[in-house]
Design brief:
heterodimer, B: Deoxyribonuclease I, Chain A, five-stranded mixed β-sheet
Chain lengths: 135, 270
């Protein structure tokens, strides 16, 4: 006798890129572009009241005493979209993203902001100077 | 080792400020909401006869920081919009972690938001403490909270207690989670009977409840630093030399609506 169940027709699982995956891709990209001089770390946090999962991405300069700057935060409840993206570093208030395309679009404005580029340039300049002292 | 913190409310420091820093041998000047000419303060602080201060201001722009320690003795560890963390290695005495904060104001942030900001600072500091392998940490700044507000007191936020003996117990467990203490000496700096002025910031709103004086500018000490910062090493300044920061009625007047904090860490405890 076939096993019956009461679950009904469960919806098909569609692959999505979670906010954490989207951030992780950009973290890897920065590490590759800077040849490892800068890395990015993702930190997951349950947040106040544990109603949201908050993933933050920070730029880390390993050779500058692991100096880090928190660049972007993405929060979402158990259901990942819509999510909220914000950047305390840029004083950019939270922006609601309905899906991964909107998240990527918002992320571009943060990663390509002049202040972000200035930060990266300054860190790379210091790392270069440190390396030349050590050489 | 002397630290001076002052929320300038976007005003410039008084002319007497560099000379005061020299007289008091201030090692690190931390300014929140710096005035339009604060960047130039480095020049006057470093003028001949005043001492060589380096501008170490974080890229976030919220603070201006000047230090007369050699560059390698004050290493930045983390910057966020509302706080910055340094690993400080004084010439004498053990190294410590210095956190400067300027947390969201009550006008723009509710109690829960302030609590969350506090929690984020502590989470980040704990990461640095783990990396450096010690808890010699000091947090100073404008918390925009009273010592008795949730974000200052709650175990999962600053966990700042009013009693050194309690703080010396290091931590307490709440619902199976251990939370480290801070000692908050500013509990003892509220009201007329306290040492110094009744608070660090004066503001009276027209609501049914107002305190008139607020102790938003605070310093928190991990238990490991308790002996290096006795109460007599903590000063809420009401004057910079001959320049009074209070008017004849005892209210803050002149430069900023906040008073500066001057903290001294003893070099070594045997």
């Amino acid at each position: 006798m076939a096993t019956s169940h009461l679950w009904g027709d469960l919806p098909e699982v569609v692959d999505i890129r979670t906010p954490k995956m989207v951030l992780a891709e950009q973290a890897s990209a920065l590490q590759e572009i800077t040849k490892g001089a800068l890395t990015c770390e993702l930190v997951a946090d349950a947040g106040q009241g544990q109603r949201f999962i908050r993933n933050s991405m920070r730029i880390v300069a390993p050779s500058l005493g692991r100096y880090s700057v928190e660049l972007v935060q993405v929060s979402h409840p158990v259901i990942v979209y819509p999510c909220i993206i914000e950047s305390h570093f840029l004083e950019k208030p939270g922006e609601k993203c309905e899906d991964e395309a909107e998240l990527e679009k918002a992320l571009v404005t943060i990663l390509q902001d002049p202040k972000t580029h200035k930060l990266i340039t300054n860190l790379l300049q210091q790392i270069k100077a440190e390396n030349s002292i050590a050489a | 080792m002397r630290l001076l913190f002052w929320n300038m409310q976007k005003k410039d420091t008084p002319q007497q400020f560099p000379a005061y820093c020299q007289e008091q041998e201030v090692d690190v000047v931390l300014l929140a909401e710096p005035g339009p000419h604060a960047k130039m303060l480095g020049d006057s602080l470093s003028a001949p006869g005043v001492g060589g201060y380096l501008r170490l201001s974080p890229i976030t722009g919220r603070f201006e920081v000047f230090s007369r320690l050699p560059l390698h003795r004050m290493q930045p560890r983390h910057d966020s919009n509302r706080f910055s963390i340094w690993h400080v290695r004084p010439v004498l005495g053990e190294d410590f972690n210095l956190v400067v904060v300027h947390l969201p104001a009550k006008l723009s942030a509710g109690n829960l938001d302030q609590h969350e900001s506090a929690r984020q600072v502590v989470t980040e500091l704990q990461r640095v403490e783990r990396e450096l392998g010690h808890q010699r940490s000091l947090v100073i700044g404008d918390f925009n909270m009273h010592p008795f507000d949730d974000g200052m007191v709650a175990a999962n936020a600053f966990h700042g207690v009013m009693d050194r003996r309690t703080a010396a117990k290091q931590a307490r467990t709440v619902q199976n989670v251990s939370y480290d203490f801070f000692f908050n000496p500013m509990w003892s700096r509220m009201g007329d009977a306290s040492k110094g002025p009744p608070g660090t910031h004066s503001y009276a709103d027209s609501g049914i409840k107002t305190f008139f004086w607020h102790t938003f500018d605070q310093v928190l000490l991990r238990p490991a630093l308790l002996e290096r910062v006795p109460d007599e090493n903590i000063h809420v300044l009401t004057a910079l030399g001959a320049l009074s920061l209070l008017n004849k009625n005892g209210k803050i007047s002149g430069t900023s609506d906040h008073l500066p904090l001057l903290i001294e860490l003893s070099d070594q405890i045997n």
